[in-house]
Structures are given as C-alpha cells and as structure tokens.
Design a protein that fits this description.
Order of helices and strands: HH
Distance between the termini: 67 Å
Radius of gyration: 26 Å
Number of helices: 2
Number of strands: 0
Helix content: over 70%
Number of domains: 1
Strand content: under 5%
Structural class: mainly alpha
C-alpha cells in the first residue's frame, strides 16, 4: 500500500513536493486509509446490530399479539 502511495505522490508532485513533504503525505494518507477501513467496519457492525434489534422488536410484537389473542380466547 505504501509503495503505491509513494508512486502516486511522486507522479503528482515531482515539482511540487520535496522528499519530506512526500513522506508526510504518504504517512497521512496511510493513517486516513486505516481509519476509513475501521469506520467502514464499525458502520457495518452498527447496521447489523440495528437489523438484529429490529428483528427482536418484531418478534416481541408478534409474541405480545399472540399472547393477547390467546388471552382473549
């Protein structure tokens, strides 16, 4: 990953950045990429938890309605 980033930075900024700037940009992009991946995983986990809670809520509602129907018989 870092090799690809170094190549991109080198192509973009041959005349614009020196080696210190290049190293800083590569490190920042690597850091941000790792955090984006972590945020994506957390979002996926959060969505799955919400889906599970929704299903549990639906099951509870069905159980309550079943109990009410049983009690009215």
């Amino acid at each position: 990953m870092r090799g690809v980033l170094k190549e991109v930075v080198a192509e973009i900024g041959d005349t614009m950045v020196d080696s210190e700037d290049e190293a800083m940009v590569v490190e920042e992009v690597s850091f941000l990429t790792e955090h984006v991946i972590h945020m994506d995983l957390l979002t996926t986990i959060g969505v799955n938890v919400l889906k599970i809670l929704h299903v549990l809520s639906m099951e509870r509602t069905i159980a309550m309605k079943s109990a009410q129907t049983y009690m009215s018989i």
